[in-house]
Specification:
heterotrimer; A alpha/beta (251); B alpha/beta (282); C alpha+beta (349); A: alpha/beta; Rossmann fold; B: 282 residues; 7-stranded mixed beta sheet; 6-stranded antiparallel beta sheet; 7 helices; 15 strands; globular
């Protein structure tokens, strides 16, 4: 009987909230723990190993050192899972790419800014091969469990490729646009159900990135008709989706 | 207006529950195509040439697959599965003795009754040979019912040719003319080279008496139809089988719909005359 | 059964009586606009308190369809140990849908045909067979996007067991089926008087004057109008604004396309095959496993929906696919309107 597969969790630039979302699965983690060994998870335990069957890597790449770490982890890993918006699309960290690099460093580190060299924010897939993506800020615990089940069963995980509007309508929500709130659900990849922001009255801020073939032009037009300026439209999109060319060119 | 008996329908057997089947044998035919011979665990599958089944890998999902055997071959049936999706990739790991779920058979059939006494020209490109084979085997097993039989088979390269043993056996028969071509030959290949329409120059057609069964990728279908029309085969005797993602098989889920037509019920077999009218067919 | 009337004050008692032995679903207040209290949004839900029922409701996001054809429905359960033993999951309980507007009653009749024809779908039909439809007539359009008069759904002659017509202090109650007559037995109805009949007549006149035709042609010409528009540039023009978000489909009372997934239990002991409302507007709806997409262009998907609603469902079921409720237009952030599209294409050839 082969050993149980090994799982590891690592973070780059992020708040580690996605790891906490994993722990939030509570007893639903137990069937996974019966079938796999977590060898590295600093939010939950000590320990490490030389090789990981599956690594969940959260956080974005913001320094040269991050690139090295990501590559080193990739080299020890069979299946690399990008965990959370920072890892899959750069997350909110991408905002700094639209500001003067020096200003950002000074704002954060003051006169010690030279001690902390940094590069434009990028998602993991810009530097290493990513096998599975779990989007979201933070991730949806249900989707994490789904991915874990797929990995244990040896089948690929297919992430949703339709916008948040689908589960939002199925939940019977009154469209936020009709309440005067421009919501990014129309172009944002679904997969957050049953924890949809619009179900709680909040607009979708696009934390799961764009669907594969978004009509961002129409979105910008419709938002403009709605009374938003170009800058406001860009600000809506760039909170999470600045990494996409469609969005970057709005600026 | 269609009259519906809701209460009778409420008691109907669910069409979505797979029935258990067992794999009798499996063989990797090419790098991406795997052949299965399958037997239902309870009642045998009652099918006709041209139909398809839904294959369930429990825990993974279901995929629609054309039946590539003929009911004349016995109670078991055969599938040729190309590994391109969730389910079909998983099927690569399946072999003799493994169990699957089967729904169906679904869809209409090749017009094998209507074709009796006529010439039959089969033109199969790539994986198109799988559904075509169901009719080829049927015709060969009832050889006396049909007049002249011609089989044209094409593949991108020799490694992608399906049913090579059978192609050789058919080539060896004197009551069937079989020609095989590849787009890109390897060093060992001594046969025909070039797209499948090039084979038309090598055969004699009595167009007015011929049914042309053409199954293959859209581009191949397009040019082969032009060839058949140029030879004078009537539009309603050019027969094809269309590929769509049939998810339910019973004309409800909508995924296979071409215009107003549910391919899973009204197809997958259509005449060129019908396909042309659909406009979104190919 | 002769026409009956129910005093509005006796309505709650009737609903309570129905709730005693059945699940009763109806329209209730969902939320109120913070800055405009008169702007109320309603939803269809299972009634917990008879007093929550709001017969003055307007267009809901999802219609009563979701009680017969839930957004997510489990079809088959199987095990993942030695023997999968797949079993159908068919669940139903005696249900009353109370307050179904004519458009939605018409749509339910269309769904009945779609799920009942050829190979019947017992997962839908078992619920349907166990459900009574209590209609609620409309005195005025409930939304500017609606065009139920054009689509022939404003005056349904079937698709309901009881029809209610609210007329001030009384509600006119007409039972159309045996099931309807049984339901009405528990209501404190009295035979309609001459005054009631006159009030009924007045309602009908008012209704007639409140609804106006919006299409420049009769419904029977719609399939031909659509067919002549097939190659029109109009589809591409409209599709430029389309997000392909599917909200038109997910809110439509007659849409019945679905996607199916195998969901695995958290302990990996078994799986459930589940269907979920799908949308022909979504990017990958017509994609096959090899990656070929037969309706890759937004415009071809948009045209497909407009054709499906005005032509294809009619060909399949004998009933036109659009009931003119206006939900799709209202749900569309880009304000794409099926009604305006049907007007626009009248000029194309």
């Amino acid at each position: 009987m082969a050993d149980k597969p090994t799982l590891a969790f690592f973070s780059l630039a992020c708040c580690e909230g996605c790891q906490l979302q994993v722990l939030a699965a509570n007893e639903k983690l137990l069937p996974i723990l019966e079938r796999a060994d977590i060898v590295r998870f600093r939010e939950a335990s000590d320990g490490d190993a030389d090789h990981y069957n599956v690594t969940f890597l959260e956080g974005s790449i913001v320094t040269e050192h991050d690139i090295e770490r990501a590559k080193a982890i990739r080299a020890k890993t069979d299946v690399l899972v990008a965990l959370g918006a920072c890892a899959t699309i750069g997350g909110v960290n991408v905002i700094k790419n639209f500001q003067e690099s020096d200003d950002v460093a000074e704002y954060v580190y003051g006169d010690k800014k030279d001690w902390f060299p940094h590069i434009p924010t990028r998602p993991l897939k810009a530097e290493v091969q990513v096998d599975v993506e779990i989007h979201g800020c933070p991730i949806n615990t249900c989707e994490f469990l789904e991915v874990a089940k797929c990995l244990l069963m040896g089948k690929p995980y297919r992430q949703p490729n339709y916008p948040v509007c689908v589960p939002c309508k199925l939940a019977g929500n009154v469209c936020l646009w009709h309440k005067g709130v421009p919501c990014l659900g129309v172009v944002t990849r679904a997969g957050c159900e049953p924890f949809l922001c619009p179900s709680a009255g909040h607009k979708c801020i696009g934390c799961r990135g764009l669907v594969d073939n978004p009509n961002t032009e129409a979105a910008a037009d419709v938002m403009a008709e709605f009374g938003l300026t170009v800058e406001e439209v860009f600000r809506e999109f760039s909170l999470f989706q600045g990494i996409y060319d469609d969005v970057a060119k709005m600026k | 207006m269609t009259q519906i008996d809701i209460h009778k329908g409420a008691e109907a057997e669910s069409p979505y529950v797979p029935k258990m089947a067992r794999i009798l044998s499996a063989e990797q035919m090419t790098e991406t195509e795997r052949f299965f011979r399958i037997e239902m665990e309870e009642a045998p599958l009652a099918y006709q040439p041209g139909q398809f089944v839904g294959v369930t890998v429990f825990g993974v999902g279901e995929a629609p697959i054309s039946i590539c055997s003929s009911p004349t071959q016995g109670d078991a049936f055969e599938l040729t599965v190309r590994s391109v999706g969730l389910v079909t990739n998983k099927l690569k790991e399946f072999g003799e003795g493994d169990r699957l779920g089967i729904r169906g058979p679904f869809g209409n059939t090749f017009p094998y009754e209507e074709m009796k006494g006529k010439d039959v020209l089969f033109v199969a490109g790539g994986l198109g040979l799988a559904p075509t084979r169901s009719l080829i085997r049927y015709v060969l097993d009832n050889r006396g019912d049909y007049h002249k039989v011609t089989i044209l088979v094409g593949a991108r390269d020799p490694s992608l040719l399906l049913f090579r043993d059978e192609l050789e056996a058919w080539t060896g028969r004197d009551d069937v003319e079989t020609l095989v071509t590849v787009d890109r030959p390897d060093k060992a290949w001594s046969g025909n080279v070039g797209v499948i329409t090039r084979l038309f120059a090598k055969i004699q057609l009595d167009a007015a008496a011929t049914y042309a069964v053409i199954v293959g990728p859209p581009v191949m279908f397009k040019f082969t139809v032009l060839e058949a029309l140029a030879e004078g085969v009537p539009e309603n005797r050019i027969i094809c089988s269309l590929e769509r993602h049939m998810k339910c098989g019973v004309g409800k889920c909508g995924h296979c719909q071409i215009r107003g037509v549910y391919v899973c019920r009204e197809g997958p077999v259509f005449t060129y005359e019908q396909v042309k009218r659909l406009r979104e067919g190919i | 059964m002769l026409p009956q009337v129910l005093k509005r004050n006796d309505l709650a008692a009737w609903v309570e009586a129905l709730m005693a032995d059945r699940t009763v679903a109806g329209p209730v207040l969902k939320e109120t606009n913070v800055s405009d209290p008169s702007d109320e949004k309603f939803e269809w839900t299972v009634l917990e308190d008879a007093g929550d029922l709001r017969l003055d409701y307007n267009l809901t996001v999802l219609g009563p369809k979701s009680f017969l054809w839930p957004p997510r429905q489990q079809l088959v359960a199987y095990r993942l140990d030695d023997g999968p033993d797949p079993q159908p999951l068919i669940e139903h309980e005696p249900t009353v849908l109370l307050g179904v507007h004519p458009c939605d009653a018409t749509a339910i009749a269309t769904l009945d045909t779609a799920f009942g024809k050829d190979i019947p779908d017992p997962h839908y039909l078992a619920r349907r067979a166990d459900t009574a439809i209590v209609g609620l007539d409309c005195a005025a359009p409930c939304h500017e996007s609606s065009f139920c008069l054009d689509m022939g759904s404003l005056y349904p002659d079937s698709g309901f067991d009881v029809m209610l017509t609210p007329m001030g202090e009384v509600i006119f109650v007409e039972a159309a089926t045996d099931l309807g007559r049984a339901l009405v037995k528990s209501a404190a109805v009295r035979p309609a008087t001459k005054d009631d009949m006159e009030a009924r007549q007045k309602f009908a006149e008012e209704k007639r004057s409140n609804f106006h035709y919006k299409l420049p042609y009769e419904l029977k010409y719609l399939p031909e109008v659509l067919e002549q528009s097939y190659d029109s540039l109009v589809w591409e023009a409209i599709a430029r604004r389309c997000f392909s978000c599917g909200s038109c489909n997910t809110t439509c009372p007659t849409c019945y396309c679905w996607d199916v997934t195998d969901d695995i239990a958290d302990d990996l002991s078994g799986g459930v095959r589940t269907r979920r409302y799908d949308s022909c507007q979504l990017d990958t709806f017509a994609e096959v496993a090899g990656g070929e997409n037969f309706r890759e262009e937004r415009s071809s998907r948009l045209r497909h929906r407009m054709f499906r609603k005005g032509k294809y469902i009619l060909e399949q079921t004998g009933r036109v696919g659009c009931v003119g409720c206006g939900r799709c237009e209202r749900a569309c952030v880009a304000k794409i309107s099926i009604k305006d599209t049907y007007v626009q294409i009248a000029g194309t050839r």
